[in-house]
Fold:
Amino acid sequence: MAPTDETGQAAQQSSVSGTTPPVRPPVGEAPSNGRMPRWLPRAMVLALALVAAFQLGSWAFHQLTGLLINILIAFFLALAIEPAVSWMASRGMRRGLAAFIVFIGVMVVSAGFVTLLGSVLADQIIKLIEGFPEYLDSVINWINTHFKTDLKRVDIQEGLLRSDWLRNYVQNSATGVLDVSAQVIGGLFQLLTIALFSFYFAADGPRLRRAICSVLPPARQAEVLRAWEIAVNKTGGYIYSRGLMALISGVAHFVLLQALDVPYAPVLAVWVGLVSQFIPTIGTYLAGALPMLIAFTVDPWYALWVLIFVVIYQQFENYVLQPKLTSKTVDIHPAVAFGSVVAGTALLGAVGALIAIPAIATLQAFLGAYVKRYDVTDDPRVRGHRRRGEGPGLLTRARNLWARRPGAERPGGGGSGSGENSS
Structure:
């Protein structure tokens, strides 16, 4: 093969000078003259594109957080009413009509409860405003009697009306009316969004499951359908068990309030039943605050009786009623339930507190099928106590501890000195 001009010139130069010609760097590496590598601009463009895509995705996620939370709430509401909708659909009713009937029933019950509770609160506020002069006179008389003062209600009212605090409060309240109106409108729009998504999820549940399974292999389809079934069972069981306990709690508190002749006993009983069951662990105490307040307006001792009953009923519910009703529906430990509520509240606020328990119950039931369990050995340490007659007794252990103290003689009888003498 004939040499080229370049190789021929390099060979001549090497033959003249007696040195080897310089070797060219491989393709893709940086040349010796300091030029930029060919791959570096493309890598920089790719890195900038990835950063821009991440920033855009993060911005979109933050903008759509409210919508995603609404969809999550709607999904769990659809799971909660799925058993009722499926039962009506299995009886020959169209699934859309069944979901509509269930939603209308839930909305009517919720609207009636809110209306009754609002009327109760409005009546109590009106009574409080009407009786405020009498309460103020009694407080002034008590202060004048015990502290030897000469206060008058007219002076206090005039000083309050002329105070800068009241003037600033009225101005801030006037400017905050628009904010409250905007919040109310936003809340109504959010409720409408949740209701629409819940209706679509409940009415088109089979179509949604088919759409999800159509992009998965058969093995994954079985797992998705199994997880969906577990979620429906756990969420429906949670609502069923909580509803039954709310009914029992409402009846028990209604009997107490009716016996004490507290006004609005039926509405207060419904309030206690719902709030105490759908806000876990501390819901009973939060729900009992309103009946205690209204009972206090009748007689302060009645408020004390309501508090005692709330505490006793909470213990009865935790140790007797709840384990029997939730053992087959939402079988999770109370500590796990409380921790899930705290975590859900930290992540999603009140929404997370409501959906935390069914979500954890669903996850626990789904993972339980993939965790292999073994028989536990019959060891006293597993039960947390010893069998009677096992191990040293109390006197024996006390004697051994006494013998181990510094300077004590050993059970053999001789100390260190006798050992030296014997040697």
Q: What stands out?
A: The chain is about 75% helix and 0% strand.
